[in-house]
Amino acid sequence: MKSKKQWLEEVESLCAEVEPEDGINPRLLLRKSTKTSSHRKTYQVCKQAEKTLNLVLAGEPALRELMVCAVKPNPDSTHLLVIVAANSNFVHLDENDVLKALKQAGGRLRSALATALNRKRTPLLSFHFRVLNC
């Protein structure tokens, strides 16, 4: 087996400049890394959670004026960030009151989400209130 020094001398004699890719199989350079792949299932869960939470919020008396703008993984599908806003421009809601009401209804929302999602564990929910409409 050749030492690294002998290998470097051999490579330098074969090419004008030594590049970082020298000595690596070209097929490996063209492969896409798995870290950059999109997480299709995670975004499916987010979309399904958004639809379910919109339906549940419409049935809650204290949260009827809210609608879900988006649901995002935070940082992964085990914890979801739910972004909510007021249904119309005419309704002025206090951010602290809305977040308090959402926190109180969090158990019911998560329970409804558990029945809609076909998963082993129901994701945790955290809420963000957006003052402007979606």
Please, could you describe this protein's structure?
The chain is of the alpha+beta class. The protein folds into 2 domains: 4-32, no CATH class; 40-130, 2-Layer Sandwich (GMP Synthetase, Chain A, domain 3), CATH 3.30.300. The chain contains 5 helices and 3 strands; from the N terminus they run αααββααβ. β1 and β2 form a beta hairpin. α3 (40-59) crosses α5 (106-116). The model has no long low-confidence stretch (mean pLDDT 84).
User: Can you identify the CATH class of the largest domain?
Assistant: Alpha Beta
Oligomer: single chain
Q: What's the tally of helices?
A: 5
Percent strand equals 15-25%
Set out the fold topology.
Elements: H1 4-14, H2 26-30, H3 40-59, E1 66-73, E2 79-86, H4 95-104, H5 106-116, E3 124-130
Parallel strand pairs: 2-3
Antiparallel strand pairs: 1-2
Helix pairs in contact: 3-5
Q: Can you summarize this structure?
A:
The chain is an alpha+beta fold. The protein folds into two domains: 4-32, no CATH class; 40-130, GMP Synthetase, Chain A, domain 3. 43% of the residues lie in helices and 17% in strands.
Keywords:
3 strands, 2 domains, alpha+beta, 3-stranded mixed beta sheet, GMP Synthetase, Chain A, domain 3, 134 residues, 43% helix, 5 helices
